[in-house]
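SAMPLE LOG
Freezer: B-3
Tube label: C17
Construct: single chain, 147 aa
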Amino acid sequence: MKKYILIALFLTNISILSAQETEKAAIKEVILTSYVDGIHNRGGIEKVETGFHPGFEMLSINNGLLVRFPIYSWIESIKKAMASGQMQTEKVTAEIPLVDVAGDAAIARVELYRAGKHLFTDYMNLYKFDDGWKIVAKTYYRIPEEK
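STRUCTURE (predicted):
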């Protein structure tokens, strides 16, 4: 009897871990498609809109003050940059060393690089909605340029 209980517990744990890995893969896909490709590599506004919640805000510190930057402002700045031709030719790449999921909430740490140079460390907050994971907030650290 103990043997069957242990097998059932083992299979339950495998099922839970497999579901967690599936959710983590979905989160990474949203970040890579909507954020890295859509925003940083100017892959198209439709990519951005599929992965970002309309209520998204990026939070930053400017001269000691907390500044909020909503997604619609970010989209407008991307449109202007694309229209003016102000785009980097070298693509941004990303590593996502951490994704932590608790039910329908998640965080991810994203390391951004261009030409091998570390640009930013981002912390993305996501929620799972009926149509999938959406990025709802971001904080970041800009890596200082070497002199």
